[in-house]
Structures are given as structure tokens and as C-alpha cells.
Amino acid sequence: MKKARFKVRDALEELLNGGHQDISTEEIAKAAGLTRGVTSSYLSQLRKDGLVIKYGTKPIYWKIKENTDVFSKFIGSSGSLRKVIESSKSSVVYPPSGFPLIITGPSGTGKSYLASLIYKYAHQKHVIAESAKFVVLNCADYANNPELLSSVLFGYKKGAFTGAEKDTAGLVEQADGGYLFLDEIHRLPIESQEKLFTLLDTGYYYPLGESKEARQVHIRFIFATTEKLDNYLLQTFRRRVPLKLELPSFSKRPLFERYQIILHFFYQEAVSIQRDLKIAYGILRSLVAISSAGNIGTIQNKVKLMCADAYRNDNSKRHCITIDNKKVFLEEYVLLEYQKVENFEPVMSVGDKQEVLKLISVLKKNEHQNAPISDNVLEIQSFLHDMKQAVLNIDLDEKMAGVMAKRVKKVIIFLRHRYGLNLNISDSDVRTLTQFLDVMIHFSEQLNLNDIESLVRSVKKRYPRTTYLAVLATQQLNFKEIPQNLVTLAMVFLIFAPKVNDIEKIDMLAIIVSHGETMAASIQSIVNNLCGNYIFESFDMPIETSMLDISKKIGNFINQQSQTYKGTILMFDMGSLSQMYKEIKPLLSSDLLVINNVTTATALDIGLQIQQNNQFKEIAEKAESYRDVISTQYYEGLSQKQNIIVSCMSGEGLSKEIKNIIKKVSQTDTDIITMDYKDLKNSLDNHDHEYFRNTKVILTTTDIPQHTATSIINIYDIMDKPGTQKLYALLKELGESDQNINALIEELLKFFTIEGIGDRLEFLNPEVVIKEVQKITSKYEKYYHLSLSGKIKLNLYMHISLMLERTLVSNNSSNKGHTIHEQMSEAQLEFYSVSKNIFHDAEVKYNITVNDYEISLMYELLRPLIVD
Q1: 188, 342, 515, 841 — which has fewest CB within 10 A?
Q2: Which of 484, 482, 450 is nearest to 467 (CA)?
Q3: Does 141 lie in the same domain as 87?
Q4: CA–CA separation, 248 and 108 (whole Å)
Q5: Which of 244, 112, 92 is nearest to 183 (CA)?
Q6: Omega within 30 of 0 (cis) for the link into 483
Q7: Domain boundary among 501, 530, 548
Q8: What are the strands of the beta sheet with 243-246, ordered from one edge?
Q9: Using CA atoms, how far apart are residues 811 and 850, in angstroms rounded to an integer?
């Protein structure tokens, strides 16, 4: 789907093509099917991007801007290289004759191309004559022969050296009035640099062999190098070049621009072979992921080879050639048509609709399964993380993001002031919210609103008080271009999530009603802030408001509540308002306490009791004072049924534990036989294959030489990938499902972790803590798309279990860890942010805070798996 602002541009273009003139914002809005406000915002963005022109006053009219800027073909000119292009233009137009510049960057990043565009721009701006030349010299060609270089640059007089039979003009003279581009300037010898900066200073030079009559030229200089200037160029030379521009390597370019570069190369090949190209997104993803190539030419060569192979293999000589890799992403393609103008905007502005729909589906599933709210927070974070890496990446509209951020911060202040919620929202959290909402804007037309409403109902059912606050926040944010339910969901998951448990633990409905403009809100604000939670809602009523109107307003509020409270408390400022008892009571399914003549002190007392989860009866009574095992089955020897033998050297008890684990997850009618290790050895030594014909596998805790009778697996080998695969294959033969096999391996990991940490944990129960550890590990796997081997999982289980206890102990002492954010790389910062969410439930459960140092240890454990 195109970005909305490009839909607006298309609507304008269609109107113009249809013969319309002087097209207003209202006409464009109608054609695009958007509101006038939204259309106006998008038109402003398009104007800023140089795509449309605004003219007229009242009304304002719009037209498409024809792009004649020579730099427009340089990918990134309006993006990451905008400042480079602007500086390049300045070097051309600055009076009286511009100034020299030097372009740095790895080989093949476009330095020569940029230099040629600067020359063309000078022609376009008429600051050089039409006949002015663009003369190029690669200094590396003459690096070992300074004299030859001087003669090439400055020319020479007849007789200047052997073979100099006539006066010969150099490149400097040829470039007179135009541009001289010296590439690989770092290969220029020192003596040549000295001659050159004299030319830069005075405009005069001496050809080789000339010492009396200097020649004058008017030249504009562009230099380029792949090296650091300080290492090769004289300081006196560097001072004479005021502008230094750097072009980044391919891997340092923004993702959006890397895709544009790759598509540009494919388009060039399509034109060259006169065929349309149908390119698998997987190919684009693999090319854009190449991080070792600083040279864009490397990418271009890869594209050329792919097209050549596809052309050679296309025996049918069809009009369209398909370029794909059957190993990746065959389900999606992009079509480049060679007969059409090169334009990738529609391709680059398409969003991965399926990923958004998948996200909504997963959020719904998690809510139906009563998953922790942190799971859905992580799902959204993962979605945004993956969107940044997707082919169809959506760039955040910074202008809109700024507007959103200001409104969100204002709402955060409101929630803290009115409802006592210190949400501790960082700029990063706000940006995550705005990124999510920005993505939703792009996909709003594709979303099934019924699915969204269903998800909101599920969220409201689980988090009614939080959802109520989120709806209030949504109303204040006033993002009309986004479905309000989506904003509410974003607020619940990305803003309120850390406070959900506190907000939802309040099991009574408390309301303050007062005559006047601010009294009720003032008391509510004080009490909620002192309690540090949303306890009270308030209603301020003008004196002239009737009892019926007040009752209706409170009734509407009560009807919005989707949970059954243990009691409702109404606090009024005047006795007359207590008459509403008869109006309000029928709306409630709980007891009602009415307190007249509300004060801050009495409201605070009530609020503290509610916060402490006191019983309704207790609060009502105090209000009066305001007035003055697993069974197992043991088999010896051979079973006549399909069976698995478990035999552990450390004893039959351990064997039975493993048997119980297998039986718990098994879905097939397979006997699990436990045997004494000595008996097993005797049986293997004294019986042949026939004796074990129904035994599919023997599981042990020690190495036994392989026997022809049946397969033997050391249980500890399951922790490694080959062992896992072997057990997996054997169990599949028994008819076990993938799900059950994975569950068995997970249970064995859990069992051996408990066995390993049982004697090392002093405070935590191994049986309990392992469940939390499994959740934590699973979340890391899901976020980073990992499939950890059993051995790595076992290591993680052990480490995290001991870490949780270590943190529990250290949190009760003076050692709170230390902050190391300044030392973190970008990957570490992302890992830190994700980890804080992943450990959230464990922190709440054990009342601990996992510090930065512990997270850094986790990062070191997982770094080889998550960092390229």
C-alpha cells in the first residue's frame, strides 16, 4: 500500500491529467478520500519534499513540481545526503567563482559521480560557460612519477625534457573556465601539492620548463580521496580547501536508500537487456544485508551477475525474467518494467500488510490466553524491530512524529497530575509509540476494524481500569487520522503496561462529586498523587446543574465500567447530593457507600484504605467515625509392546523421574521401562537384536558403547543439536507430534536444570523459578528469531536461575548495581531495552530490579547469537 501522502500526490496528478486547473485542498481531499485536515498535512509534507508546489492565497491551489535538479538522480539527495548536496550547491554558486571542495569516502561510493553532478549543476546555474569542460585526472596513475604528473597537469615547454618536441598544454589549461577533478588526491606527491596550492591561491602556474612567464587560468577544483586527509595531504594544502564532504559506504546508508540503490541497478539491467524483471523480495533482502561491501560497485556487479544468470537460464525468452532464490521468500516479488520511467516510490512505499495483520492476530491470541501484558509489549517491539529490517520499510514521518510526541507528553503530564500515575515514560518510549501509530496510519485501510474492536474488548475485560484511562488519553491525543481503538491499544501496551498491575489491583469504585469548577478534581488529584495510583474519579458540577443531570453523568461513568467491583464509594461535598443514592444504586451490582461533605482528609483516608485492599465492610464501619505424587509402573526386561528403556547409573529413582516426564508429554501408547544400570548392561551383553526388537531407544545418563540391538542415546547429549536431532527422529518414528517432542526436550531441560541448581539455590524454589526462567529464555528466542540448542538453553537456565537469586539478595543490600549506558553499543542499547521488558514479570513476582550489569552478562552470553 502506498504511503498516504503519495496517495494524495496521485490524486492531485489524476486531477491535473483530467484537465482540472487551480486545484484546491478540498478537491484533492475528496479525490483521495481523506479529510481536509489530513490532506493539508500531507500536502505540506510533499511540498517540503519538493514534490508539489503551492500557489495562490485564499483559496490555496496545488500542482505537481517538475523535478529539474541534476542532483535528484543521486540516491539519497533528499535523504541522508541532503546536507552533502546542499553544501555541493553552495560550493558552486558562492561568488565570485565558488570554492574548491574535497569528497572523501570508501572506494565506489559515488565520489566521481557526485563530482560530475556538481559540474552539471554549475552549467544549470549558468556560473560556467556552456563550453566549459570537466577534466578528470586520477593521481594514482602517476603516483610514482612526479615529473610526468607535473607535465600532465601543467603542460610543458618544448625542450623541457627529452622527447618534449613541442609546447604541450596540460590538464590545467584544458580545464580553464571549467572544473578540474583530481581523484585519489592522496596519491599526489608533496611537490605537486605545493605547485597546486600556489595555483589555488593565485590562479597562476608555470608549465614544466617555463620559469619566466606565468599563465593565468580560472579553474574550479574538486578533489576526492579514500583516505584520511591528515595522513597524506599537507596542512597548507588542506587549509585551501574549505569544504570537506563525506560519502558513506553502502552498509552505512539508510535501509531505504540501500533498497533504492539495488533497485536502480536492477532497473539499469532491465533496460540493458530490454526485459522486465520480476525480483523476489528475498533477493533484495539478501543484497541489502551485505555489510562487508563498502563499494557500491560490488553490489552493482552482484546484480549484473544475477541478471546474466537469469537471462541465460530463461530458455523461453519471455518478456519478463524472474530472479529469485528458492531458499528465501519466494512468495513475494517486485516488478520492474524497463519501458517505464525509473520510479521506485510505489515499491518502496508498500507496507507488509500481512505482518500487521499477523501482529493483530497474535495480540488477540495472547489476550484470549491471558498472557502477561509484557508478552504483547514484546510483540509490538518485535514487530517494529522487524519492520526496520523489512524490504518495505516505513520511514517515520518526523514532522508528524514531533506533533504526536508533544501531545503524548502532554497527556502523560495530565495522567500524573489527575490520576497520580508516574509512568516514567522516556523519549525512547514516546518514539516507539509514535512509530507504532505511524505504521498503523499506513495500514489503517487494510485493517479489519472488527478485529480491532474484538481485541479492545479482550483488553478491556482483562484491564478495565487501565482501558478506561487509555480511552481518556486517546480522546485528549485527538489523532483523528487513526482509528481510535488503535490509539487506545497503543496507550495500554506501550504507555500504561508498567503500571497495569497497580492500576488493576484496585477493587473498588471511588467517585468524588462536587459543586463548582475544580474542587472535586483538586481533591482527586491530591489523593491519587499521594496514593500514587488511580483511586478516585471526579466530577465537578456547576451550581445550576440539576440532580438528574448529575445522576446521568455519574450513571454514564458507571456504565462504562466493565468489571464488578467489591463496592462503590461516592463522596459528595453537599448533603443534597446524597439524594442520588436512589438513582445510582440500581446501576450497581455491589454495595454502595455514600459520604457527605467530602474533604481532602477523608478522601485520603478512604483512598489509602482502598489502596491497602481493605474490605468494603471495614471501610464502611470506619466511615462511621467520620461523624463526631505420581504413580509409576515398573517393568523388568523386555516389553512385548513398543517401548523406551530408561536406565541411569545414579539409580532407579532418577530413571523413574525421567520416565514420568516422558509419560506426561507422550501421546503414543509406548511403554517406558526403567532398568537398573547393571541389569541393562547384562541384558545388552547377553541378548541379541531379537530380544530388543520392540525397544526403539535406550536413554541413559552415561556413555554406553553402541549396540546392534537398538539405538542408545546419552540423555545429556540431547543438550547438543546432534543428540536432539537423533531423539527427534526416533520419537517421530513412534508417532509423536512435533509439539510433544519439543515439550519433552523442554521438560528434560527443565528437570536437569532443577537437578543442577537444587543445591546451589538458598532462597528460591527450583521448581518454581524454572518456570519463570523458561518464559524469559523463550522471549529472547522469539524476539531475536533464535532456535537455541539444548546445551545453550541449559546454560541459560542455570545462569538466569542463579542470577535471579543473586539479584534478590543484592536488592536487599546496598548493592544496586551500576549504570553502564554510556558504554553501550547500539546493539547493547536495544538488548538492554528489550531485556527490561522481558524481565518485567520476574521483577514484579520477586520484587527485584535486574540491574544493568546483570543484563550485560546476559548480553555476553547471547551476543555471539544475536550480533552479526
Answers
A1: 342
A2: 484
A3: yes
A4: 10
A5: 112
A6: no
A7: 501
A8: 134-138, 179-183, 220-225, 101-104, 243-246
A9: 9
Could you tell me if residue 732 is inside a domain?
no
650, part of any domain: yes
pLDDT of residue 390: 53
pTM: 0.50
Based on the domain organization, do 108 and 167 belong to the same domain?
A: yes
Cell digits of residue 309:
544468470
Query: Region 539-554: what's the mean pLDDT?
Result: 79
Which cell numbers in the block locate residue 336? 520492474
Find the mean pLDDT for residues 275-296: 76
SS3 431: helix
List residues bridging with 696 in a β-sheet: none
Instruction: Say yes or no: 410 and 473 in one domain.
Output: yes
Contact between 299 and 108 under an 8 Å Cβ cutoff? The reply is no
Cell reading at 412: 502523560
C-alpha separations of 151 from 155, 223, 224, 459, 616 in Å: 5, 19, 21, 79, 100
Tell me which of 126-135, 486-495, 682-691 is least confident.
Answer: 682-691
Residue 537 belongs to domain with CATH number: 3.40.50.510
Asked if 234 and 279 sit in the same domain, the reply is: no
According to the model, what pLDDT value does residue 39 have?
85
CA distances to 225, 227, 733 from 868, rounded to whole Å, are: 29, 26, 37
For residue 671, what is the enclosing H or E element?
Answer: strand 671-674
CA distance 374 to 501: 11
Rg of the chain on CA atoms, in Å: 37
- The 10s digit of each residue's pLDDT in 505-530 is 999 999 998 888 888 999 999 999 99
- Give the structural domain span for 538: 505-626
586 and 479 in a single domain? The answer is no
Same domain, 714 and 687: yes
Cα 372 to Cα 339: distance, rounded to the nearest angstrom: 53
Angstrom distance (rounded) from CA 822 to CA 556 = 50
Contact 279, 360 (CB under 8 A): no
Q: Which residue has the higher pLDDT, 657 or 703?
A: 657
Q: Same domain, yes or no, for 493 and 518?
A: no
Distance CA(514)–CA(570), nearest Å, equals 11
In this prediction, residue 578 carries a pLDDT of 54
Number of domains into which the chain is organized: 7
Residue 406 domain flag = yes
Q: Is residue 207 domain-shared with residue 304, that is, in the same domain?
A: no
Segment holding 183, helix H or strand E: strand 179-183
d(CA 100, CA 91): 7
CATH of the domain at 52: 1.10.10.10
Average pLDDT over residues 26-43: 84
State how far the Cα of 649 lies from the Cα of 655, in Å rounded to an integer. Answer: 9
Residue 357 in 3-state DSSP?
helix
d(CA 280, CA 283): 5
d(CA 390, CA 360) in angstroms, rounded, equals: 18
CB atoms within 10 A of CB 416: 17
729 within a domain of the structure (yes/no):
no
